[in-house]
Amino acid sequence: MTLGPRMAAMLLAMTSVTLAVGCGHSEGKASNSTITLGAAAEIPESPASKATPSEVVPVSASDTPIVETESSKSPDVKPSAPTEPAAAPTTAVTDETRTFKVEGPENSIRVSFDDFDLLKVMNLDPVPPDAPERLPKWLKELDGKRIRVRGFMFPPFQDTDIRGFVLARDNQICCFGRTPKEYDLVETFLRKGVTTHYIQNRPFDVVGVFRIKSEIEKYSAMYELEDAVVIEK
Questions:
Q1: What's the rounded mean pLDDT across residues 56-83?
Q2: pTM of the prediction?
Q3: What is the distance between the alpha carbons of residues 48 and 50, in angstroms, rounded to a whole number?
Q4: Integer CA distances (angstroms), 151 to 96, 155, 184, in order
Q5: Angle (nearest 5°) at CA 34 between 19 and 27
């Protein structure tokens, strides 16, 4: 059977859609998409800015009463030109924005411990108890989103069947290393039915739902990862 040009074009379009839907992400193949957090909020327009031309009533010179003053009577004094009111801004930058890369089979947001570092981000040292309330908007918007972060496993109490652990910024954070800051640690709780083993002295990725604690204690993690999985490669 010979297909007409229109039918052939429709079949070609349907085949292209099928191939696009069936193509998924594979581990190690990064997505090209990005996400921007902390976008500026728009200021609502005033009723005057929404007025249509038909609603504007023109005022002629004859409608305006003229009041003579001494300065207006003097030929040496020139009236100043009328100034136009400044236009109101349509948007306002409420906080700093930041763009992140989205990658992996779970479309997680790639972040680093530098993004959590409150000394670099906000110049906070030490970290005050109300730090979670003072975070920039883009960092607050990470709460509840699935992220992907690379770090080291803080030595746990067991070597196998680990259900949760502390992800540390580097392998110098330990009993005989430097004292960690609250933003140097992320408490990690693995997905239901998933366990891991102790990964010693080498970095690895963890994917999970990011949470910011509302209350923090000194030398304890102020961030958490829920429903997490370990990606060793």
A1: 50
A2: 0.63
A3: 5
A4: 26, 13, 10
A5: 55
Give the mean pLDDT of the chain: 75
Token pair, residue 177, equals: 């290393």
Instruction: Measure the CA–CA gap between 136 and 39, rounded to whole angstroms.
Output: 11
> How many domains does one find in the chain?
1
Give residue 66's pLDDT: 47
Domain span holding position 144 = 102-233
Q: What is the spatial distance between Cα 3 and Cα 20, in angstroms, rounded to a whole number?
A: 24
51, part of any domain? no
| DSSP string of 37-60, one letter each residue | ESPPEEPPPPGGGG--GGGPPP--
Token pair for 14: 């349907």
Residue 151 lies in a domain: yes
Nearest CA to 232 out of 113, 150, 144 is that of: 150
Confidence (pLDDT) at 44? 46
Sign of CA dihedral 142, 148, 153, 157: positive
Beta carbons of 181 and 218 less than 8 angstroms apart: no
pLDDT of 1: 47
pLDDT of residue 53: 46
Q: Which amino acid is at 100?
A: F
Over the stretch 139-175, which tens digit does the pLDDT of each residue have? Answer: 999 999 999 999 999 999 999 999 999 999 998 876 6
Evaluate whether residue 97 is within a structural domain.
Answer: no
- Examine residue 47 and state whether it is found in any structural domain, yes or no: no
Cβ atoms 90, 44 nearer than 8 A: no
